[in-house]
Amino acid sequence: MKNNLKRLFIGSMLAAGLLTYNNSVQAGGFNLYEFGGRASALAGAIVAQSADASTVFYNPAGVAFLDNSQFYGGVTLIFPTANFVGVSPMFDNTVHDAVQNIFTPVGIYYAHKLNDKVGFGIGLTNPFGLGLEWEDDFPGRAISRNALVESYYISPVVAYKVTPNFSIGVGADLVIAKIDLIRNINVFDSEGSPGYDVGEVELSGSSDLSYGFSFSAQYQAEKWSVGFMYRNGITNEFKDGDAAFAFHDDLTVPQAAAVAGALLQDQHVSTTLDFPGFFSVGASYQAMEKLRVEMDYMWFQWSVFDQLQLDFENESTPDQTIPFDYEDSWQLRLGGEYALNEKLDLRAGYIFDKTPQPIESVSPLLPDDDRHDISVGIGYKTGRYVIDAGYMFVNIGERSTVENGVGMNHNGFNGTYNSRADLFWASFGVNF
Amino acid sequence: MKRTLIIALMFASVILYSGCDLSAPDQPELNATLGQVVAQGKFVAVGNSLTAGFQSSGMVETAQVNSYPALIARQLGKQSFQQPLIAEPGIGSTSGMTPLQLVNGDITAQPLTVNPLTLLKNATLARPYDNLGVPGATLHDVFNATGAATSASGSNLFFDMILRNPNLGNTTQIEQAILLNPSLMILWIGNNDALGAALAGGNINLLTPTANFTADYTSVLTKIRTSTHAALILANIPYVTDIPFVNALDGVINAGMGVPVISTVADVNGDGVNEVVNVDFNPLPNAELYVPLVTEETGVAHLTIPALSMYQAGVGVPDSAALVAMGFPSLNASAMVAAMKANGLVPTGQPLPGSVTITASEATTIKTRVDEFNGVIASLAQTFQAPVADMNAALSVLNASGIDGMSGKFVLLDPVHTAFSLDGVHPNDAGYAIVANQFITVINGALGLQVPQVNVSDYAGQYVGKPVAKIALEAAEQVKAIF
Lengths: 432, 483
Hints:
Chain A contains four helices and 23 strands. By secondary structure, chain A is mainly β.
């Protein structure tokens, strides 16, 4: 077990070091919250605690309560799985599986205790992202065949103890987002018809640097503690994205690609992508000598994610609006940690995650539903070092766009999706 | 030990979770049959002038809005069925002319003073039209012609106008239909592979050979079946000798026109010249006036509409010499000529040319060919599982007993009830409503639907209050220009 953990740990740090990370569909909508081995095993019910430097992300005010300066970092391996069966009688009963991809968001932190009152830190995280790829013959390929959204947050924070038990924290977020959307393109779509599949388009780009902020507070008493954290929303501007078109060379109507090629030429595309603001509030309690529990409530302003407007540079390429119409949503997080002995902690947690996604925008881009997540984990301390590892089962389950025999999807692409994700993580900490 | 057990249990559960595959979801069902889904999808019609909504030897918006595909689309609830609408006064089948119009009782065509291409209203529609009927299209054209130059006639401008190549990638009618990804498609084609022979007065050289028809029809259906998932509805070909253009003069010319009755004429003694079959001569006003007909061809069974115009100008009306040559006593011949003149005829002695007469033998050849075409369609329909609307039977019923109060008679004979437009070849609004209903019956049967029928009476009476007296020769000839 120890060797396995070590291998996983080494591999994850390598991945993080090379910055070859992606991140993926996790929490409802497309926010992620697995940025620390201990915190993740506690199902992210962590806003009232500050055990390691990942508090830079979860509650910057907690930096002031850290005993030492610390480097803490790790990676989560996300294995999302999804499948789809189209609605009868439009589709036969074929189950279409999504491509198995692995996504690897990281949480890397350094926190420094300046004195008894002031601490500061810096973190790198990927709090928003999604990734879902379907096979080439997927019937919804004109809506999305391969979607990838990534975000990179660099967050310097500073915390100040107002009293020995109460600290406040503020932080800045330097944010860059990346998009890569591949879908097949149909020409001549019209009433009742998706049109004719002539090729594919890849929309890709990196956003301009955006700035955000967070503020937070934490109160720690002997047996209990409370915390609060707010992180504001980000509007990512993609000004010079690339739209690259490629046409099939085996078309039934061979000349169609020529027509499409005249209309659809490689060009720039611009858009904006909104990440919601959110807050987290929770309380932690030392229930027994060896058992600490916490419950958090989180709220996300998902209603900012109403649509994705794609503005193509060329006049002849029609602009496109993809409606999402998300609703504000919330999560409940429960976590508990049992100290087996001085060195070993056992952890478990549960999340209820209310989906922000209305039935109309359940699509191959991101089929979501209310989620029930279960996490387990283990922590090992020896001297200056800490290792935290764990696993989470994200149960999204089946969601159909068909309600009472009526297809609700705004593209008319209806069916039932089943999805889940398996997350494995490891983090490593060194105290100075 | 206990601790080890707990840890082992935790991680065993982890492995169990991660090991199980994602289950296949149950397939959801719409409250809709496959037929309903098909009917809600894209509807496309491919064909010739009959599909285009061609009336009175021309294309004009006011008629196109009542094309049978437009009527079916309306019954299916389509919001935006796109046709190549041509603004008034419309484009006639003769270059530089309008469609046939009724002017003071005359069927006539007017000069078209604008460039016909400028009349196409939605020329910039950035996709193919949903109605891909091209006037004049033959079976071979639908999968070969991309413009006027590649059409069967080599100069059919309707192909340029409707297919709009090269902007749509030099695609044919069938390819443009495929580009629209239809779920329901009507293909009614092949009429022009027989009609031309009839309109040319029984020129059987204009009939498409049955072997070619079979090969081409197979190619078209194969292309549709391999390129779309569309439910395909076909229609067969009415006898082209059952249309007023051919049969209007089979019996009696409208007495109200003051034109004598034409008897049946035939080469009785086999000498190559038509004899007068009925020589009863009755010069009294309002009584039947039997006048021998002078024709080039022998064994004439049908006179086409242009023959009427020619006859009104004296062609085919015997003069004294012709009558004497036929065996009439000279005195009688003179009296007959006088009677003819008194009744408004112009005796010239010139025979009606073969281009306006169809002999019994030509008619039989054409009919046999249409039977062969329809046999091919019926057989391939089985192979390709496409139901067929029996338009041949429908026209027979229309002629025999009428449909929904409409008749198959020419507008000169029955302006109130006729289902044909002024050209005597193409249906009028009510006629196309009848055609639409034939298709709707087949669609309902094939897809298990109850799409309501078109109320034909809503489209009847197009010529009520506009008495029709005669058809100008140019107008009659225009019918033949494009069909």
